[in-house]
Amino acid sequence: MQQETAHLPTVSDTALDNPDLTLFVDGSRFSDASGKFHTGYAVTTTDSVLEAQPLPASCSAQEAELKALTAACKLAAGKRANIFSDSRYAQGVALDFGTIWKTRGYLTATGSPIKNGRSVADLMEALTLPEQVAVLKVKAHGRLTSPEAIGNHLADTTAKEIAVAPLPDAPPLTTSTPLLQVTFLDSIDKLQACQASASTEEINGWLSKGATCKDGLYSCNKKPCIPRSLYPSLVQWAHGPTHVSKNLMNNLISKLYFAPGITTLTRNYTAACTICAQCNPGRMEKPPVLNLAKPLYPFQRIQIDHIQMPRCGRFEYVLVVVDMFSGWPEAFPVANMTAKTTAKKLLSEIVCRYGVPEVIESDQGPVFTASVTKDIWTALGVTLHFHTPYHPQSSGKVERMNGTLKTKMLKMSQDSGMLWPDSLPIALFSVRYTPRGVNNLSPFEILFGCAPRLGCYFPQTLQLQFDVLNEYVCQLSNELSKVHGQVFSSIPDPTSVEGSHSLVPGDWVLVKKFLRKSSLEPRFDGPFQVLLTTATSVKLDGKNTWIHASHCKKSAPPASPASDSDSAPDSILPASP
Residues with Cβ < 8 Å from 214, sequence gap 6 or more? Predict the structure, then answer.
């Protein structure tokens, strides 16, 4: 570890005795009265300026310090030098963390490029030029009572003066061919060498499409011909740090270069890019919409959920229970949403009134998945069925009831100003006694086999028709059997829906994130491998719960998209477009 992270043996932080050169460096960046920024650097001795250059306004002060130190190292090539700088950042790069960054490929611990990466790399290379060099820290803007302070002052004032100077014009191109006006080629010689190593078949393909050779360089329509051996590097460059789409990659490449058949490579490259897969919206799986489980009789299966309401007195939540057979709702104001309160309410209000249900369905909230809740219902022989996360359609009965109750309470609050704990029983009354569904029956009629007494109408049909209680009970039983048969036949059968999603065990998928800390966090997590599947859900390696298939999209296996380019020849491409 020490060998990998230690600075060069020829670089030290202790002043050299009898050095060949004593240099002072400084970089400056400031804005003038109009708000325009100016940047420059200078390398001086105590009494003379050795080098001073203006820099583009986009350069930061830290980058200017790095360029100044780099220029000083080049001036001290083959010599022993003391270099003074008032920038702790530049000294730290040279002595402390520059070597660590170089070992990591100038990437941070998270894998992103470091700031000023190009300038840091230039400095690390320039530090190898002097025979021995000491990079020393000098106090900025100190009193001019020492040679170090005088030299630093000269470097500081010179950097500020040169910063306002116009930038030197770019050197003229050495050829008249406009194909070299592109900025991504850093060496025409390398391109010519790669073209020369191309196969005869590939070169004939260029010529057949109108390419010409001038000064040893093949071009077509004034665009350089890129050999197929450079396609991986070209695609990686076009994709860039912003991970542009395949269409934009093709547009960029076709505008600057002649690279026939590269669209296949750009398509495969973007399809294999994990970052693009995690951040792009993409197309999700679309499993068929199945029906809910079909109960056989009232209160065999129930769905439960909580509604959060504005605090009113000691109440802040509503525990909602819906019978999946009849649609009969129960709702209870509660002060909190704990497992203890929920279990107590269900036992005292549901079990004691309607009996023990066979199945209780709910989401995977901590209230319902707590160990105390599981222990109670397991002891009573109740099966707990938890729905897949972030898929409210699985709890369709109770979710719809939540919306219905809240809407009715809202309307009563606006109409009469009633508090929601007072209007909740009225909302339940309306739902229980209102006919609905295919058979036009209310939940009350499904449960009790007769029409409810609503005050304005008293159903005396059964009372007048039967004089004996036994006959009444028998007839009621027959009516209930008839009603229950009609209701059961009208409930959709979940097995009647055919089809499934396209995921199979062994596939790799990304899972949608529904809770992101910020908009810069990827939309998807993964990839994960599919272990098991059902008609609507999948079990993934590394995930404890089943995931609904509509939350997944297919992905390439977790291999780096850049791995295929490791074996490519020396790239003539820069790090980014």
Answer: 177
Q: What pTM did the predictor assign?
A: 0.44
Q: How many CB atoms lie within 10 A of CB 318?
A: 22
Select from 243, 437, 410, 456 the least CA-distant residue to 325: 437
What would the mean pLDDT of 552-568 be, rounded to a whole number?
62
Both structure tokens of 61: 């002060």
| Distance from C-alpha of 552 to C-alpha of 460, rounded to nearest angstrom | 57
The CATH code of the domain that includes 332 is: 3.30.420.10
Exposed e or buried b per residue across 325-349, where buried means at least 16 C-beta atoms within 10 angstroms of its C-beta: bbbbbbbbbbeebebebbbebbeee
Binning pLDDT at 50, 70 and 90, where does residue 289 land? confident
If residue 133 lies in a helix (H) or strand (E), which one and from where to where? strand 132-137
Whether the pLDDT of residue 395 is over 80: the answer is: no
Q: DSSP for 18-44, please give it.
A: S-SEEEEEEEEEEE-TTS-EEEEEEEE
Same domain membership, residue 220 and residue 90: no
Name the residue among 349, 272, 269, 246 with its Cα closest to residue 304: 349
In a domain, 280, yes or no: no
The pLDDT, as a whole number, for residue 173 is 33
